[in-house]
Design brief:
With 219 residues, this protein is an alpha/beta fold. It has helices at 19-28, 45-56, 73-77, 89-99, 101-110, 120-123, 133-136, 162-175, and strands at 6-10, 33-36, 62-64, 81-84, 114-118, 153-155, 179-181, 186-191, 194-199, 202-205, 211-214. The longest helix is centred in the last third of the chain and has 14 residues, at 162-175.
C-alpha cells in the first residue's frame, strides 16, 4: 500500500502549547525522525537538539540534519518523517535552495512523505513567504515557498488581533493566495484535500476578503 502524504503545520508554540498537535504527529511516525534546525539563529544547534529531544520524549530516534548538502534521496527514504523547526524563514528557504534540497523534499512529498513544519518550517511549505515578518521586511529575488499546499500560504503565531486580521486581509490579495492563519496553541494537518485542525481553531483568509473559521477536528 502506498504511503499517503501528511503535512503537519504547527502554529509556532512551545512544547507545552503544541503538545496535543505534536502527539498527533507521533501517532503517524514510523521509524527514525530527521530534525532540521537550520532556521534557528538565536541558539546553537546543540541546544536545539536538547530541546527537540524533550519534545520527542523517547518516541523516536532523532537524526539532526544541519547541512542539507550531505543529504541524499536514500537518506530521505530511510526515515519515517521530517521535522522542520522554526526561526528565520529567509535563512531556512535560502539553505533549501542553495543545497538543492528543494528537489529532494519535493520527491519525498510525492512519494508519500510525512513532514512537520513549525513556524518558519510551516511557512516555507506554503506558496508565498511574505506571511513571515522577516521576509516582508527584507527584499528577496523570489518570495516563492515550496508550494506543497495547493496554493495556500501559512501565517503562524496567529492571535486573532484586529490589526493582525487587517494585515492578513491586505496581504492575501497582494500575494494572490489564500492564507491559513494558525495559532500557537494548535496546528493543521494537510492530508489530500482536507485540512484537519487540532487544538485551537484556525482561519482561512481569501483574496476577496472573505474569511472562513476552521473548527478543531481533534481537540
Amino acid at each position: 500500500m502506498e504511503r499517503q502524504t501528511k503535512i503537519f503545520l504547527g502554529g509556532g508554540g512551545n512544547e507545552t502549547l503544541s503538545a496535543s498537535f505534536d502527539d498527533e504527529f507521533f501517532k503517524y511516525l514510523k521509524g527514525n525522525l530527521a530534525y532540521i534546525p537550520i532556521a534557528m539563529t538565536s541558539r546553537p544547534y546543540s541546544e536545539c537538539f536538547t530541546w527537540f529531544n524533550r519534545v520527542v520524549n523517547g518516541r523516536s530516534n532523532v537524526n539532526m540534519w544541519t547541512d542539507l548538502n550531505k543529504i541524499t534521496m536514500q537518506d530521505l527514504q530511510a526515515i519515517g518523517g521530517i521535522y522542520i523547526g522554526g526561526g528565520n524563514t529567509n535563512r531556512l528557504m535560502d539553505h533549501f535552495l542553495e543545497t538543492g534540497f528543494t528537489s529532494l523534499i519535493s520527491r519525498y512529498i510525492r512519494e508519500g512523505g510525512l513532514i512537520y513544519g513549525g513556524s518558519a518550517g510551516a511557512i516555507i511549505l506554503g506558496k508565498d513567504l511574505r506571511t513571515a515578518p522577516e521576509v516582508r521586511n527584507n527584499a528577496r529575488l523570489s518570495y516563492d515557498g515550496l508550494n506543497f499546499l495547493d496554493g495556500l500560504s501559512v501565517f503562524c503565531h496567529y492571535k486573532g488581533l484586529s490589526e493582525e486580521n487587517q494585515l492578513i486581509m491586505d496581504l492575501s490579495p497582494t500575494i494572490e493566495s489564500p492564507i491559513l492563519a494558525i495559532p500557537e496553541t494548535g496546528g493543521v494537518i494537510r492530508c489530500k484535500d482536507n485540512l484537519i485542525v487540532i487544538g485551537e481553531r484556525a482561519k482561512l483568509f481569501y483574496p476577496d476578503n472573505s474569511i472562513k473559521t476552521l473548527a478543531p477536528t481533534i481537540s
